[in-house]
Write a sequence for this structure.
């Protein structure tokens, strides 16, 4: 019913809209979302074809060109949209709009009050000016009379009359001037929704100068180059602080093409292979930010939705690579990654000198090194760029990208990485990103197993699982990951956000990585055994939080 209502909303006849209007915007498969029509950045091209507006959405970092038929006035359709959308983030977005309107109304009232007071001050000042002018006229008249009497006998005073005349002519200029103590008074402009949006409201970061680049770059996207030094790792906040204060040579911020969260898409043709949980969200965000994308998936039906949103269809991986400048791939495991490149009509057959291939799959370093060698041997350019995140973060364009390989290609992918992620790291030579990604997922998978273990131990000892979660959420372990996964377990909802079978694969590869350098990984090994048991209980295609079931069976 919600889908039908949303479809009906999108199919309604267009209305007259203009810049500054609050609207409901519908983009692809996403539900209608509250936003505001604003001026796009100067160098952001408007899509060809149907009339559209540039919309900034409340409660998110999202912004996009939306066709006019996909827009509805906010107030007229508020109740209708609230009925068909019940999500927490949606409600937060609506609350942000209401807070914005409340602030706008308050500022309007303050502006009106200040304008009235200023008018009264001006009238009072004008009256004082008139009185002052009258007094000066009187004094000038007396002085002028005296000057006339003295003019015949005192020739040296001939210039007095013209001087007095100039004084008389200048005196009216004081008319209406504010008193001395009011000289710094600033008269506030009338506050409208349009003017209000030049400030920070409900999570939006609007251009302080109406479209000029933010001094410190896009707050939504952080872009790092890490040299291969032996400097110790530092936390994210410390990295950001170091970049701003010192411009470190070991951790350098690359030039960003983002303008206040808006992305100038590359003019290169983009290909994308693999439309799974992660790939689907990535492609959606690439399209939303204006990239030209050609897609391919093993099951072609998954391409249909993206074709409707403007993507082109590639018949084979080789065709996609041969027709695109940069081709991304995101598949499940090392075997799938190799088959995609080396198999029939695979990537390698489309590689020509200058063609670029970016593998975003989470695989081992040996696999990615082998793929890099065969791509480069054909004159191609290679970058590995596995991503840290889940389906929701992929949909939201908030992934963390770990890249290694061709640094020039990394820079060429800048607008793509900004569309799909919040942070990008360059880690040096091929294989480094694969190793780092496996370590990250090893920590995450082990932590998930520990959460499940703790919840089941609470249950069998007669403790409240909800109370345990409440306690954890108030302590140092509090995180979105902890809360979401515990909620999955408490609600018995294991809809995949990160497949259990894939986190077990990553644990297995991380353990092998440890073996290759004779480094013990006993915690990961123990967690791996629990996930293997969960797989034996048919939990492979559920979310990783379904590892909980390995403890209760």
């Amino acid at each position: 019913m919600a889908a039908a209502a949303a479809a009906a909303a999108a199919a309604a006849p267009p209305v007259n809209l203009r810049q500054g209007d609050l609207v409901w915007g519908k983009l692809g498969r996403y539900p209608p979302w509250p936003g505001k029509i604003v001026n796009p950045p100067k160098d952001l091209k408007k899509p060809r074809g149907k009339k559209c507006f540039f919309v900034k959405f409340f409660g998110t970092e999202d912004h996009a060109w939306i066709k006019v038929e996909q827009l509805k006035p906010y107030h007229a359709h508020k109740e209708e949209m609230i009925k068909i959308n019940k999500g927490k983030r949606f409600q937060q977005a609506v609350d942000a709009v209401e807070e914005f309107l409340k602030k706008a109304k308050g500022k309007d009232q303050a502006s009106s009050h200040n304008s009235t007071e200023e008018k009264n001050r001006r009238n009072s000042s004008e009256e004082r000016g008139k009185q002052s002018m009258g007094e000066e006229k009187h004094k000038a008249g007396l002085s002028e009379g005296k000057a006339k009497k003295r003019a015949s006998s005192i020739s040296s005073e001939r210039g007095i009359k013209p001087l007095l005349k100039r004084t008389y002519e200048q005196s009216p200029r004081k008319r209406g001037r504010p008193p001395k103590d009011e000289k710094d008074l600033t008269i506030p402009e009338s506050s409208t929704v349009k003017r209000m949006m030049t400030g920070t409201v409900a999570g939006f970061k609007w251009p302080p100068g109406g479209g000029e680049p933010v001094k410190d770059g896009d707050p939504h996207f952080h872009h790092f180059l890490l040299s291969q030094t032996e400097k110790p790792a530092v936390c994210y906040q410390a990295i950001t602080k170091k970049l701003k204060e010192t411009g470190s040579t070991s951790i350098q911020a690359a030039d960003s093409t983002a303008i206040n969260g808006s992305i100038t898409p590359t003019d290169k043709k983009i290909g994308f292979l693999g439309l799974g949980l992660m790939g689907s969200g990535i492609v959606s965000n690439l399209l939303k930010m204006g990239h030209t994308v050609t897609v391919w998936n093993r099951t072609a039906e998954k391409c249909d939705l993206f074709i409707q949103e403007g993507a082109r269809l590639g018949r084979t991986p080789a065709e996609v690579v041969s027709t695109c400048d940069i081709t991304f791939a995101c598949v499940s495991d090392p075997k799938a990654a190799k088959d995609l490149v080396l198999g029939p009509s695979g990537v390698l057959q489309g590689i020509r000198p200058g063609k670029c291939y970016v593998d975003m799959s989470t695989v081992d370093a040996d696999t990615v090194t082998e793929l890099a060698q065969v791509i480069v041997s054909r004159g191609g350019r290679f970058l590995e760029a596995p991503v840290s995140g889940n389906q929701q973060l992929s949909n939201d364009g908030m992934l963390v990208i770990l890249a290694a390989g061709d640094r020039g290609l990394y820079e060429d992918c800048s607008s793509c990485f900004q569309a799909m992620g919040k942070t990008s790291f360059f880690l040096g030579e091929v294989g480094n990103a694969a190793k780092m990604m496996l370590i990250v997922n090893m920590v995450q998978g082990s932590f998930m197993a520990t959460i499940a273990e703790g919840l089941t131990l609470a249950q069998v000892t007669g403790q409240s699982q909800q109370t345990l979660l409440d306690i954890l959420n108030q302590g140092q372990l509090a995180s979105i990951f902890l809360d979401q996964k515990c909620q999955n377990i408490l609600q018995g909802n294991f809809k995949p956000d990160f497949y259990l079978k894939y986190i077990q694969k990553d644990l297995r590869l991380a353990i092998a990585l440890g073996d290759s350098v004779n480094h013990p990984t006993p915690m990961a090994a123990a967690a791996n055994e629990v996930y293997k048991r969960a797989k034996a209980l048919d939990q492979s295609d559920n979310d990783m939080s379904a590892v909980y079931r390995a403890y209760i069976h």
In short: Confidence is low (pLDDT under 50) at residues 146-220, 227-261. The radius of gyration is 33 Å.
